[in-house]
Amino acid sequence: MASKAVTIGDLIHRVATSCLSNRLPGNYALHDSGDTDLDDEDDDPFADFTDAVSGGEERKRSPSSEEVAAAAEEDDEDKGGDADEEKLKIWEEKRKVAAAVASGAERARDAEALMAEVFDAVSGVRRAYSSLQGAHCPWDPDRMRTADVEVVAELRHLARLRDRFRRSAATGHIPRPNPTAPPLREAVAPYEAALDDLRRQLQAKQAEVDGLKEKLAIASNRRNARLHPSKHNASASGGAPTAELFTACAEQTRAATRAFAAHLLQLMRAAGLDLTAATRSLTKIPVSSPQLAKHALEAHATRVLLGGFEHESFYLDGSLSSLLDPAAFRMERYTQFRDMRGMEPTELLGLLPTCPFGRYAASKFASLLPPRVEQAVLGDGEHRRAVDGGAHPRTPFYGEFLRAAKAVWMLHLLAFALQPPPSHFEASRGAEFHPEYMESVAGSRGAGAGAGMVVGFAVAPGFRLGNGTVVRARVYLVPRGGRP
């Protein structure tokens, strides 16, 4: 080496030879090299790694049967998962469609329910308005106020339905009422009916209290007249007949007639008669129970005693004094009324048995009790024989009759003392019940009579006075199509 000259070419040759005879790090080998040393696996430190990499590449290029089966199973699982996802998507779409259909059906049902409520509300408005029109003829202020409240309530209900529809149009959902809860109108209706019934009962009680006050005032006046007759006559002589006085006298007349009917009923019961059959035979009223006998007897006594009330002398004579000198006739009648007011009828007839009042009492007694009824009730005909002879018996039964007859006579005198004289009216059988012109003999129970009640029979007539005051007729009410 020391004897040879080193040149640049020798150095390049050595370096190239060394590079070609040794492998480069990082497995960068020159495969095109023909050097045998490159194929020696024992001398290659990366032989194992190289073989592993090359073997893996060879397996990829030619997989085994197990690998093929495993790959097929994986493909099937992938395809099965895709199928499940498709089925899930289809199910979700079907569920959405079913929900949309159900929602549409529910909205349709809600709309139908709302329309039904609208039709009901319109029908309620029509019914309330019909009631309002019916309250005008005959004129009934109480019914008008009630019907007016009903009309306003129905209109408000219709307005609430309109607002509900507008809200549903804005939100796309119609609020549906709770089907288990009753509507507000149905829930309140029983309480309204009970309230109306209580009001009618209160009005009836108030009318009864007013009647009792009038009777108390009349009784007090009669007591004062008996205790101080001169003072009472002096104060009465300067007065004039009034509608209030006539109304009070009418109440006294009805009370006296009821007392006579009750006394006659007691005599019939004491005689052992069948009250229903005997009352039906006497009064010609189709009475079906003993409880109605008293009202039927009162109706019979009132009809007989007030027969001919429109004539100035009950048709006892042909006098026409009221046409010749009306003013003097009215003054004379009022004078007779004041004179007879404090007198007992038995005392008057004991002195003047054939006076006009005596002749009136005798004629009415003959019509009130036929001979066979008088004999069955009283046991003999002594009363009729005495009356036909111009006398008036002093018996309890005839005394009750005279008190009722005197009350009717006094009412007749006062009626012809008024200007204009009051007109009387009577309810016919089967007529509709009008509380402004009629009152039920059942008291508070009759005050709550509804539209289905009609007149079974008239008990006492009513009177209409010149100033518009009405003395209501007394009637017995029965259901429509029923019998007393």
From TrEMBL:
Instruction: Say if the entry is tagged with keyword Coiled coil.
Output: yes
- Organism per entry: Zizania palustris (Northern wild rice)
**UniProt superkingdom:** Eukaryota
Q: Which residues form the DUF641 domain?
A: 107-224
Record-linked InterPro entries: DUF641_pln, GIL1-like, GIL1_IRKI_C
**Presence of keyword Coiled coil:** yes
Descriptive protein name: DUF641 domain-containing protein
Q: Which residues form a coiled coil?
A: 188-222
Where are the stretches annotated Disordered?
A: 25-84
Q: In this protein, which residues make up the domain named GIL1/IRKI C-terminal?
A: 425-476
**Gene Ontology annotations of biological process type:** negative gravitropism; response to red or far red light
Keywords from UniProt, A to Z, are: Coiled coil
**Comp. bias regions, Acidic residues:** 35-46
| Species classification | Eukaryota, Viridiplantae, Streptophyta, Embryophyta, Tracheophyta
